[in-house]
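YM 10:42: Putative mRNA 3-end processing factor sequence, as discussed on the call
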Amino acid sequence: MPVLQFTDKGIYCAAGDFYIDPWQPVQRAVVTHAHSDHARWGHRHYLCQQDSVPLLQLRLGADISVQGIPFGEAVYYNGVRISLHPAGHMVGSAQVRVQQGSEIWVVSGDYKVENDGLSGQFEPLPCQVFITECTFGLPIYNWQPQGIIFSSIREWIQENQRAGKHSILLAYSLGKAQRLLYNLADAVPRFYVHGAINAAHQVLLANGHPLPPVHYITPDTPKADLKDGLIIAPPSAAGTAWMRRFLPYALGVCSGWMQVRGHMRRRNADAGFALSDHADWPGLLQAVKATGAEQVYTTHGFSSAFARYLQENGIAAEEVRTAFGQEEEEV
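YM 10:58: structure's back
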């Protein structure tokens, strides 16, 4: 029997009797990170990296049964060794290394190989079998270094200030928003955020993460106070009454999908910044090669195309259907 199996509830380890990022309620869930397509409500017990604990409690309820462990520390379920290792996707994101006897499988969760300064550096893990995400598994997706992207964002903010416009960036409320705040801390004097972002931000601040302070936008926030600041909101706020109060404004979208210009037009954005918390095509290939895996399973995203490319280049690969997908608000 293989170490891990693909079932209708999620990725299952029969010997250890646990699931990894299950999408149906189970007794024991090992969770890679706190995004809703991977961390779902209803499991009896959760195991995650220790920085994910308060985020899971924020999203799933303070009364969940959850155990957090440091990166690299092992726990054993029925003799199966489990350890969590940096994925670099967001705060607390982890790859799951599962070892039964001499056989090692690694489940990547979501990951990126470039260190954003906040989420940790992706750690390649040698294994026989690697289960990898493929959100951006096409050659067209090739990110610029984040330093260049953040320089472009700074210039865009300055242009908007000269034009007398507020700057609004749309970014996923858990993960992407904090990456922006961390890397733009020197770009503007004040940050103003939507309530969805503020909730996660306050939890991370309370747990010691090095993030700048933010101002939570309420109906009573004077518009004049926003003049020199940067407004960050989730994509779900676009086109709502919440946004109209900031006119005149320039709208920027931060997402890997902005690599394709048509996506920016469809979002009615003034600017698109291809800033992603997922690996691009070269990053995916780099990660697969570094594992030395004899077998690769590809999940969510362009999984079929990526598996086919690996096969054509001498790596045994197979696409697997899962319930993982785009994080809410990223659609």
